[in-house]
Amino acid sequence: MSFTLITTPSDGEIAEAEAGVRAGIVTDYLAAKRTGNRAGIAKALLAAMSLDAANPDEPAVMDEIDAIRYSAAAA
Protein backbone atom coordinates (compact mmCIF):
# COMPACT_ATOMS: atom_id res chain seq x y z
CA MET A 1 0.00 0.00 0.00
CA SER A 2 1.30 3.45 -0.89
CA PHE A 3 0.36 6.77 0.57
CA THR A 4 0.15 10.14 -1.09
CA LEU A 5 1.11 13.22 0.85
CA ILE A 6 -1.62 15.85 0.68
CA THR A 7 -0.23 19.36 0.67
CA THR A 8 -2.03 22.59 1.40
CA PRO A 9 -1.82 25.21 -1.35
CA SER A 10 0.24 28.27 -0.57
CA ASP A 11 -1.32 31.70 -0.12
CA GLY A 12 0.07 32.67 -3.51
CA GLU A 13 -1.51 29.66 -5.19
CA ILE A 14 -4.86 30.46 -3.58
CA ALA A 15 -4.65 34.11 -4.62
CA GLU A 16 -3.78 33.09 -8.19
CA ALA A 17 -6.73 30.69 -8.36
CA GLU A 18 -9.12 33.29 -6.97
CA ALA A 19 -7.88 35.90 -9.45
CA GLY A 20 -8.47 33.43 -12.26
CA VAL A 21 -12.05 32.85 -11.14
CA ARG A 22 -12.70 36.58 -10.89
CA ALA A 23 -11.19 37.24 -14.32
CA GLY A 24 -13.20 34.38 -15.79
CA ILE A 25 -16.46 35.87 -14.53
CA VAL A 26 -15.64 39.27 -16.01
CA THR A 27 -14.55 37.65 -19.29
CA ASP A 28 -17.78 35.64 -19.44
CA TYR A 29 -19.79 38.80 -18.82
CA LEU A 30 -17.98 40.69 -21.58
CA ALA A 31 -18.38 37.83 -24.07
CA ALA A 32 -22.09 37.54 -23.31
CA LYS A 33 -22.57 41.30 -23.53
CA ARG A 34 -20.73 41.47 -26.85
CA THR A 35 -22.97 38.80 -28.39
CA GLY A 36 -26.18 39.96 -26.73
CA ASN A 37 -26.56 36.67 -24.85
CA ARG A 38 -28.95 37.66 -22.07
CA ALA A 39 -28.76 34.28 -20.36
CA GLY A 40 -24.96 34.50 -20.37
CA ILE A 41 -25.09 38.00 -18.94
CA ALA A 42 -27.43 36.85 -16.18
CA LYS A 43 -25.24 33.82 -15.44
CA ALA A 44 -22.12 35.99 -15.12
CA LEU A 45 -23.91 38.51 -12.90
CA LEU A 46 -25.21 35.71 -10.68
CA ALA A 47 -21.71 34.22 -10.43
CA ALA A 48 -20.31 37.64 -9.50
CA MET A 49 -22.94 38.20 -6.83
CA SER A 50 -22.39 34.70 -5.42
CA LEU A 51 -18.62 35.15 -5.27
CA ASP A 52 -19.02 38.56 -3.63
CA ALA A 53 -21.41 37.14 -1.02
CA ALA A 54 -19.00 34.30 -0.25
CA ASN A 55 -16.01 36.68 0.04
CA PRO A 56 -17.26 39.89 1.69
CA ASP A 57 -13.75 41.03 2.67
CA GLU A 58 -12.48 40.92 -0.93
CA PRO A 59 -13.02 43.58 -3.60
CA ALA A 60 -16.39 42.99 -5.23
CA VAL A 61 -16.51 41.52 -8.73
CA MET A 62 -19.82 43.34 -9.22
CA ASP A 63 -17.95 46.62 -8.73
CA GLU A 64 -15.68 45.66 -11.63
CA ILE A 65 -18.63 44.73 -13.81
CA ASP A 66 -20.52 47.89 -12.83
CA ALA A 67 -17.48 49.98 -13.79
CA ILE A 68 -17.49 48.31 -17.21
CA ARG A 69 -21.25 48.75 -17.60
CA TYR A 70 -21.26 52.42 -16.62
CA SER A 71 -18.17 53.34 -18.63
CA ALA A 72 -19.75 51.72 -21.70
CA ALA A 73 -23.01 53.61 -21.11
CA ALA A 74 -21.15 56.90 -20.83
CA ALA A 75 -19.24 56.34 -24.08
Keywords:
75 residues, mainly alpha
Give an overview of the whole structure.
The longest helix is centred in the N-terminal third of the chain and has 25 residues. The relative contact order is 0.12. The chain is 75% helix and 0% strand. It starts with 10 loop residues before the first helix and ends with a helix. It is mainly α and 75 residues long. The protein has three helices and no strands. The model has no long low-confidence stretch (mean pLDDT 93). Helix 1 packs antiparallel against helix 2. The chain has one domain.
Q: Give the beta-strand count.
A: 0
Structural class designation: mainly alpha
Q: What is the 3D form?
A: elongated
Low-confidence stretches: none
Order of H and E elements: HHH
What is the rounded distance between the termini?
Answer: 64 Å
The helix content, as a percent range, equals over 70%
Assess the beta-strand content as a share of residues. under 5%
Number of helices: 3
Largest sheet features:
none
Radius of gyration: 16 Å
Average the pLDDT over all residues and give the rounded result.
Answer: 93
Number of domains: 1
